[in-house]
């Protein structure tokens, strides 16, 4: 028999009964399989298109914790989480500041062109 108290050890079942349909409707690009298996800890298995597989045990988690875990797994790409570092290093950083497209352009150039447009007679 199914229990109605989802704070007990059957929270995985509570998530399946209450939240999995909402998750599937909100995430049409995610396939959800429910596979009951006897004598195993309840787990969520995420298989990604790049072949990576992540398994998370949900035995002691509440329905809200399972919801957050499944959403996190759905938002990930399956790649290992690594720290992204700058590809360069210098001991003497530039004192001029970062380069941008207007670094070496004269600043008065746009004002001069606007003045020319204002001085031309309007042709109607």
TrEMBL record:
<keyword id="KW-0689">Ribosomal protein</keyword>
<dbReference type="InterPro" id="IPR036249">
    <property type="entry name" value="Thioredoxin-like_sf"/>
</dbReference>
<feature type="domain" description="Ribosomal protein/NADH dehydrogenase">
    <location>
        <begin position="13"/>
        <end position="77"/>
    </location>
</feature>
<comment type="similarity">
    <text>Belongs to the mitochondrion-specific ribosomal protein mL43 family.</text>
</comment>
<dbReference type="InterPro" id="IPR039927">
    <property type="entry name" value="Ribosomal_mL43"/>
</dbReference>
<dbReference type="Pfam" id="PF05047">
    <property type="entry name" value="L51_S25_CI-B8"/>
</dbReference>
<keyword id="KW-0687">Ribonucleoprotein</keyword>
<protein>
    <recommendedName>
        <fullName>Large ribosomal subunit protein mL43</fullName>
    </recommendedName>
</protein>
<dbReference type="GO" id="GO:0032543">
    <property type="term" value="P:mitochondrial translation"/>
</dbReference>
<dbReference type="GO" id="GO:0003735">
    <property type="term" value="F:structural constituent of ribosome"/>
</dbReference>
<dbReference type="GO" id="GO:0005762">
    <property type="term" value="C:mitochondrial large ribosomal subunit"/>
</dbReference>
<dbReference type="InterPro" id="IPR007741">
    <property type="entry name" value="Ribosomal_mL43/mS25/NADH_DH"/>
</dbReference>
<keyword id="KW-0496">Mitochondrion</keyword>
């Amino acid at each position: 028999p199914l229990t109605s108290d989802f704070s007990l050890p059957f929270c995985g079942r509570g998530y399946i009964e209450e939240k999995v349909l909402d998750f599937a409707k909100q995430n049409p690009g995610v396939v959800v399989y429910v596979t009951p298996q006897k004598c195993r800890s309840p787990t969520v298995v995420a298989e990604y298109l790049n072949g990576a597989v992540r398994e998370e045990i949900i035995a002691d988690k509440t329905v809200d914790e399972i919801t957050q875990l499944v959403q996190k797994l759905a938002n990930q790409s399956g790649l290992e989480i690594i720290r992204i570092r700058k590809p360069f290093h210098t001991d003497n950083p530039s004192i001029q500041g970062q380069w941008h497209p207007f670094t070496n352009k004269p600043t008065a150039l746009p004002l001069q062109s606007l003045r020319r447009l204002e001085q031309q007679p309007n042709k109607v």
